[in-house]
Inverse folding.
């Protein structure tokens, strides 16, 4: 940094490089300070009560897995058409309501049983198809026409779509929250005082393959190639013979399907549905995507796991601010990060934008 | 000679403003035809319309006797028309190899694709050195080679080249025009849009001069090269 200042010739360049240097120093100091404080906090808790620490971490990771599924929907849609799809959280909510009704009302399952597990699996596929179709339809009828319009028009349309989906949820689920019994096995594995619930394991068993499948689709398949090309330059993609409309529809389908899976998992692990569920979780998932660097797939997962962990640890650790401060902590970290690293954690070295 | 591409009475508008005001042109199999004219004459608009990125307001485009105007971009590529667009439009965050591979997106004849990639790399040895480098890090000239090479990867019957010499150093301009002749020798028909009228007329068989959305002159490229008006307007005296 010192060399950058001394080699700069004109006064203007000089001042730019100095402020840039200052910014970098500030960034580094903030990063060191943060990591040190975080490490002290985690270390103190780990020493005080290791079991509680791991318990909270597992809780945090399972939150993170759910957020990741939703965050990916925001980030792939942003990656391909640079639209923040505000209706995405509500799509997750509808996925949850659909799953709850499918399992507990239409098939009347309220207890864990082999039959209920089968219905859970069937529901996973159906809810993914359900939310994927809604997302594709939203793109087809609302966003597609606005693709060449000023950026604000599709954004406001997305906000409007969010309200429409919430209204559907309100009509379907009622105005208050509803509680549902999980049909997944209720026990837990106990590893020296740390309980790993079966539902948590099932959550990971569904989420991780979905994330791997997504990575495979984007990086290895023909459809993924089309997505990456479309994300970088739509007209150039057309000139390669790529059907851009179909590629965008496919992207919305994938994002929607992940939101549906998240909805089912939420209902089966947390057990509540309400029409405004998508607002809160959607906001957290969106934050995860931004934290990781919006448009970046690994960034969305990283951001989601980080936020999930911070929440889980803050909620569950003996030395901490406690649950009532969780959201405040998460969003304070987001704001700090945005100040020092506006492009998000992985935003700078974006390798693949989709 | 039967026309491979036939554009008749084409009108293209941006909103209410007509950019192409009713032009007709033909390209026969095996020819190099160039469309010259100054900035804003409607050259790129014409190519973009042929490629289906824009839709005509009036008129018709036929390719091998089949109407293609109004079709979508990807359908037109499938018919055998590829374009190296103005401003290169390579995929900056992909490698050179991935860019070339995308040029062959609609093909699945793996062996022939590999063969075509080899042909491109023989034409542009610089690309071979940069094969696994991200395209965004290439120099302007290298990006232009990539854009032309990528369009060739579609193994088109008709290759549309939009300003392939723009912004290039003279030695690279020469290389690009040499390559255009070589591509034709390989059996590809070319419609070339250029501001560098001298080089374009030199390489082409026939030419059209486009002015404010209308064709004002057309004919044998070498005759136009000797034409006074063309010389005054486009060849610097």
């Amino acid at each position: 940094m010192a060399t950058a200042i001394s080699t700069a010739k004109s006064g203007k360049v000089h001042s730019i490089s100095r402020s840039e240097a200052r910014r970098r120093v500030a960034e580094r100091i903030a990063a060191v300070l943060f990591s040190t404080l975080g490490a002290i906090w985690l270390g103190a808790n780990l020493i005080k009560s290791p079991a509680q620490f791991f318990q909270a971490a597992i809780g945090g990771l399972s939150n993170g897995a759910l957020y990741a599924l939703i965050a990916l929907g925001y980030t792939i849609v942003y990656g391909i058409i640079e639209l923040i799809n505000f209706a995405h959280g509500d799509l997750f909510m509808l996925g949850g309501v659909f799953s709850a009704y499918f399992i507990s009302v239409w098939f009347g399952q309220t207890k864990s049983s082999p039959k209920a597990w089968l219905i859970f699996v069937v529901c996973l596929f159906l809810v993914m198809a359900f939310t994927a179709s809604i997302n594709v339809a939203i793109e087809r009828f609302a966003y597609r026409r606005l693709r060449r319009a000023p950026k604000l028009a599709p954004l406001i349309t997305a906000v409007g779509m969010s309200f429409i989906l919430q209204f559907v949820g309100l009509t379907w689920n009622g105005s208050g929250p509803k509680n549902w019994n999980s049909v997944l096995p209720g026990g837990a594995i106990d590893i020296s005082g740390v309980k790993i619930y079966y539902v948590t394991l099932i959550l990971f068993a569904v989420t991780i393959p979905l994330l791997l499948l997504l990575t495979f689709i984007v990086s290895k398949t023909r459809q993924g190639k089309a997505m990456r090309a479309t994300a970088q330059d739509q007209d150039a993609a057309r000139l390669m013979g790529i059907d851009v409309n179909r590629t965008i529809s496919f992207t919305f389908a994938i994002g929607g399907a992940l939101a549906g899976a998240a909805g089912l998992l939420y209902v089966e692990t947390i057990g509540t549905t309400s029409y405004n569920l998508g607002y809160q979780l959607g906001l957290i998932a969106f934050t995860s995507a931004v934290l990781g660097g919006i448009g970046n797939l690994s960034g969305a997962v990283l951001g989601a796991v980080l936020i999930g962990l911070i929440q889980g640890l803050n909620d569950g650790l003996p030395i901490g601010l406690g649950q009532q401060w969780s959201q405040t902590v998460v969003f304070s970290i987001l704001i700090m990060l945005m100040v020092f690293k506006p492009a998000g954690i992985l935003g700078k070295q974006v390798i693949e934008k989709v | 000679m039967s026309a491979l591409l036939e554009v008749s009475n084409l009108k293209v508008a941006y909103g209410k403003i007509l950019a192409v005001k009713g032009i007709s042109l033909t390209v026969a199999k095996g020819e190099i035809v160039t469309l010259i004219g100054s900035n804003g004459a409607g050259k790129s608009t014409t190519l973009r319309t042929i490629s289906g990125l824009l839709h005509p307001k009036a008129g018709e485009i036929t390719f091998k006797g089949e109407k293609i105007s109004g079709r979508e971009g990807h359908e037109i590529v499938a018919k055998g028309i590829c374009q190296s667009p103005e401003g290169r439009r390579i995929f900056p965050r992909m490698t050179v190899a991935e860019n070339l591979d995308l040029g062959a997106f609609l093909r699945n004849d793996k062996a022939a694709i590999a063969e075509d990639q080899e042909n491109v790399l023989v034409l542009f040895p610089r690309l071979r050195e940069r094969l696994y480098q991200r395209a965004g890090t290439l120099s302007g000239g290298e990006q232009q080679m990539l854009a032309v090479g990528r369009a060739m990867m579609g193994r088109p019957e008709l290759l549309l080249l939009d300003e392939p010499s723009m912004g290039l150093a003279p030695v690279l301009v020469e290389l690009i025009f040499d390559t255009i002749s070589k591509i034709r020798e390989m059996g590809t028909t070319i419609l070339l849009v250029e501001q560098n009228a001298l080089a374009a007329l030199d390489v082409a068989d026939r030419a059209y001069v486009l002015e404010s959305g209308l064709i004002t002159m057309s004919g044998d490229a070498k005759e136009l090269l000797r034409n006074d008006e063309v010389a005054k307007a486009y060849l610097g005296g």
About this structure: The radius of gyration of chain A is 22 Å.
